Structure prediction request, 228 residues.
Amino acid sequence: QVYLVESGGGVVQPKTSLRLSCAASGFTFSSYAMHWVRQAPGKGLQWVTFTTYDGNKTYYADSVKGRFTISRDNSKNTLYLQMNSLRADDTAVYYCARGDLRYFYYMDVWGRGTTVTVSS
Amino acid sequence: EIVLTQSPATLSLSPGERATLSCRASQNIRSHLAWYQQKPGQVPRLLIYDASNRATGIPPRFSGSGSGTDFTLTISRLEPEDFAVYYCQQRSKWPPLTFGGGTNVEIK
Prediction:
């Protein structure tokens, strides 16, 4: 079975930092590109960031560029999202999602998400 | 950035009826569009990729069509488990990948 399990969410104050993790199992993690996608309460899906299978290329939404960093440790089958300078509008459920092996810009497996709340 | 506009926002139908959902792109995205389903309290599931290809395990009652700027997801006969929110997503010009605002298919 293929699993993605996010962790690291919580309630934090504005301008602080948080690091999310996503543990992968049931597939060859090092072969797949990965994404983070978020969903604000009661809202739709917003793509946040992407990394290639080897971590050599990364892309970001403008709203997080310069504040968030995606990384991965293929030896640990783990994806990360370092979030700095958090703002209230970063409040959301954060999902890690696997890019399809052939069409890596589509997401074929999703974790259950971890909730980040930014509030003073 | 390519903006995807989904309509209607809400679709009220009965089980067994046909559902037709629309997604319109602000620019030509060829066939570079996917559809996802999200049931309440659940994570999104990939249904259709590149406009008309069903993802693994997706039943044939789900079909996608369109190219350029206008796309359609059709559910031929709604099953009780199909009542959910549906999102389209483009990959034509990225970053960023963008999603539509969603269509909620609810039980009438």
